Amino acid sequence: MSSPRQFAGPETPTWTRAQAAGIERTDSNVAPVFYPPPEKADPSVHVWDTWPLRNRDGSLAEVGGYRVVFSLTAPADLLPGKRHDVATIRYFYSADGETWTLGGRAFDGGALGSRQWAGSALLDDGDLYLYYTAAGRAGEEHLSYGQRLAMATGGDVSADDSGVSIKGPMDHRVLLEPDGERYEQEHQSRGQIYTFRDPWFYEDGATGETYLLFEANTPVPEGSDRCGGDAEQQAFNGSVGIAHSPTGDPTDWELRDPLLDAVCVNQELERPHLLERDDRYYLFVSSHKHTFAPGLEGPDGLYGFVADSLFGEYRPLNGHGLVLTNPTNAPFQSYSYVVVDHPEDPLVTSFLGYVDYDRESLDDVALLPEAEQFRRFGGTFAPTVRLGLDGDRSWLSAKYGHGFLPLAHESLPDDPFEGVVEAGDERRGYTARE
Fold first, then answer.
1. Where are the beta strands (DSSP E) in 95-236?
2. Which of 257, 270, 300, 341 is catalytic?
């Protein structure tokens, strides 16, 4: 049985600058160009970070024959760049994993924070546990960016011929806050984007132990010798945090040492999550181009690591970590990736970001006319991508429809990967990847 480490220290696995310096785009990790679907999942809302309702073992939960996902949403008439300021969690349901229907808000009042950011969802013996990030404070006059890991319990999830409903008053509580020793508190931040968010429920299949993963930052005191004493690099101090439930109770957590440390490499290891395959542990995070430390270059994308045990030495997949990125002519077309396990191959889900947009930075979106900002933002589920995994290697092998999410007993389509397109080849309407 894995034994959770008790105190932060040098034994925490690290993503090193030498490893990250090897990041490269290849035919095996660049997705094809994604186009908007004929119809969005729901035209009344922007949709971005999305996660499925799962069972304790990580498999997709079924509610009356439906699968359910939760998404960060905002009104569709709001400028896309403002959506995080009013983020609200809504849920969608689907009987076939292809066509999705908006069910409504996940919370009927009482949610903590001035807005809610990403998390995870657990259905355990009929009980619903909704984990989320409480950003800011309810009722604040000016938006603040403090973050706490929160959860809601007590809601009733049910289904009938008309679909899925989540009803009832829920009990909202704060689960965890940073301790300032293992995990940086907001006042310790050096001016970069502060992170303590994205709670992800995980049960270790090998031991039955119960954990909560999250995104965080490692405290690096001024004057530290980390990064060779380079203060500018030290400000890039992302980590993957983990908490343990000693009783298995999904509401009771104790902070443990980080699973992975990226000091000197990257500021944000977003939406961390794990899956087990072939007696290995695969850890996945999303990260942005602009969150890499000075001297390193990595694109927006999905990054992954593998270890032989939950608390083992995590090695970057493919030697450098990059698993999936966008084509150079559509560098921000998708983001916020979740790898969903399937008996045949894992699947990568995400949201459709800015399409028909090839500028170097998302900051330039604000320079576009408002009509263009709306037109170019997908704001719905992106196409699902099939992922091959073999030891320390990964590769993309197929692309499916927008929001495609099959259950374990449903076979994956056998289509060849539409996105593997050689230069000058315009098969099936997809432009060549650069």
1. 101-105, 115-124, 127-135, 147-153, 156-160, 163-167, 171-176, 197-203, 210-217
2. 270
